[in-house]
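[User] I wish I could look at a protein chain and see how it folds. I have put the entry right below:
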Amino acid sequence: MIFRKVLALRGPNIWSRHTVLEAWVDLGALKDTSSAHIPGFNDRLMSWLPTMIEHRCSVGERGGFFQRLRWGTYLAHILEHTTLELQTLCGTPVGYGRARETSEEGLFKVAIRYQEESLGRACLETARDLLMAAVFDLPFDIDANLKRLREFADRVCLGPSTNAIVDAARARNIPARRLNAGSLVQFGQGKKQRRIWTAETDLTSAIAESIAQDKQLTKTMLAAAGIPVPEGREVESPEDAWNAAQAIEGPVVVKPVDGNHGRGVCMNLTDEQQIKVAYGEALKEGSGVIVERFASGAEHRLLVVGKKLIAAAAGDAVSVIGDGQHTIRELIELQVNSDPRRGDDETKPLDTLKITPLTMIELEHQGFTPDSVPPADVKVIVRRIDNLSRDVTDIVHPTVAEHVVLAAQVVGLDIAGIDLVTQDISRPLEEQGGVIVEVNAGPGLLMHLKPEVGSPRPVGEAIVDHLFPDPNDNGRIPVVSVTGTNGKTTVARLVTSILKASGRTVGLACTDGITIDGRTIEHGDCAGPRSARNVLLNPILDAAVFEAARGGILREGLGFDKCDVAIVTNIGEGDHLGLQFIDSPKEMFKVKRTPVDVVMPTGTAVLNATDPLVVEMKELSAGSVTFFALDPMHPVIRAHRDAGHRAVVVRDGQVVLSDGTEETSLVALEDLPCTHGGRVDFQTENVLAATAAGWALGLSLNEIRNGLQSFQGNLQDDPARFNVLESAEKTIVVMDGRNRSALAAVIAAIDHFPHSKRSVIYSAEEDRRELDIVQQGQQLGASFDRVFLCEIENGVDRPVGEVTRLLRSGVEEGSRVQAINEIRDWSQAVDAAWRELQSGELLLIQSSTVPKTVKKLQTLLGLEPAEAAA
């Protein structure tokens, strides 16, 4: 069982709307081996992972997967289930998986959902090892492997506090994205984004956090506001600690000045030696030490979010009961640490109790040591401050709530954990000598999420509501996705122009690069998910437009979880067929449907009514559907309008918006430079798609019209996408078409131009099938008088010269071609074609990279950049 590759599809993809690993699994000699035919395999697997009895599989009932094992199923399918189960046993429950054989015998694609990518990969590798051990009857230590995976999960997965906030955000349809290996998470997009780091937010003041770390300063500020705090001061030495304790005249607490989580805190001390030892332990946990009056009562932690008390938990001392036989050390293990709720990782609501110097002080205070054997039924306190695990939110006295909310405000924290000590949280502090002892930034939430006693509290929801107080605000900016075979980049640029005309700050990621508010920040092919994710990080944007190319979707999924508008320009004959086992237009449909699958219920799918495969996507949109077509009488358009839905068409030379039976003329084609007076049908279709998107986003007709009219379709705003340049009575048309459908559309467009003779510079991409390359050559030979063949790639996929040879074999079949020239270098081919071009003739140039193409044309025609844009 060999993994050819493992892809992490980090966004919606051809398998699922969720993240999945796609493993290309070569079963080799095991390709025809069923689980029913391997002696002992099923028994070994089921004994190692008995919990897989919960997998229903296609049987649809508990134990369904085990039934499939007994009936006989292939190892790729078993790998899927095993990987899912290992992730679930590590605390990241997942249930989606698929295993499908490819057109290559014995090679399967196995899709497995994951929550944390690195853990998913680790579980996948372990699942393979486990299955190979089961196949060949080898030893496999399941307990050791699960222990290793769980420890790894504890290191790499979000903790329960952060997860609670993330889950609450997603429940409100707010997108969440982890930004680092820690707990830094972004909610929302563009201008609407907010960020957290566990229970700290982008509203948490650094000054307030510093104040909270200085416990003496915090006490001084709280006391000035009339909030009860314990008497005490910061001390400088063990001797000074004893002096401070004597001045207080009563039991004291010794604690770090800037510690946290109760570390280094020792309570109810009166003995000089104990106080001096406690000073040393406290100093290990902080930069200084405080001695303050001990307040009798239980420790409480109250969570304040914004200006509200959200949750309160009480802690009780931990004790053991003597039996006259075991030492205190042994009783701690038997009676305390044996509790399954205790552990050393964040998923456990209670900590493992360890004997520390502070424990020694506590025991000494009671006349014991860890090795003492207390008499039967004698209670021994082993930790005075334990995990705060008893929920008391419902009984907090209103004045106590007022005190803790004010304490957070005095320090300046938007989220705070307030520690207070009191006998009865349901009574005012002043009546019983209760005090607030600490104000903490970045408080832990687990005690409120998983209390030992009482109800969990919606603390994650409270923090999300604090960040997004408007219940209708989901933190999203308008996102438009454009996919299809041809026209994607131009449509994406047209939509961007429309959004800019509406006054929005727009981010665009497309084949030509990334543009932020009209400024290009990255050149090259940026039509993939990584570019989209990067754009959505930008805090100045209030709209985003993404070209979603085939390669990016297959390689990594989409770069966004949902979109407001999904445009599908066409599928036609497909392109890049034969790659990644996408061998037909019908299979390409599964790729191009991906953005339509994630249209929000309030959004719109904009679909080409003349492409049957695109029309099929109508049923996939959770939102509305707007069709577009040149022909207002197209059957799909007519049926859609008759049902009361929207369409965008051309009627009498006008772009027309149809809403059911109502029609509104938007703009004349002759006023849209990129359509060249309506002569270029595919550009007109691009205009219709972009218009539908602007309409779906609720933009005004004037905004849509202005955006379309300002789009010139030249080398500046749409480089290499059917740019027409005139010089010395010669015409140059630059295009980027690289497949049969695109080439046919361009040829149809220049048929409307008056030139009697025309030449072309062309090359096919190496990754196309031989048949596709030859057929493009046939199109050239049938449509051009002179053909200049070059090579725009570097011979990685095919030997140098192979593409030219295939193209030429097709060109030679053409009835029109009179001359064929092979000039491998694109730039030299352009020079040669320009020299041979006569007055009144047309030259079609297939572009190289956009910067290279623009620079070459500027040099060729002697244009300044501004002139080339005209």
Notes: The first helix runs from residue 41 to 48.
